[in-house]
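[audit] Reproducing an earlier prediction to check determinism. Same input, same settings, fresh worker. If the tokens differ from the archived copy the diff job will pick it up downstream; this log only records the rerun itself.
[audit] input (47 residues):
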Amino acid sequence: MNTSALIFMILAQVTITAIMLYFLIRAMRAKKRPEPDSYTDNDEQDW
């Protein structure tokens, strides 16, 4: 493997890893959204 191919491979791996970590950290820090309780909100009451 020549030098330019090695540099290109390392730069590609670092770039992809950095983008993945950026979005992973963003997803982990996101505020939790309240989800409706499907058991109580969707039940039909027969009585």
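[audit] rerun output stored. Observation attached for the diff report: The mean pLDDT is 85.
[audit] end
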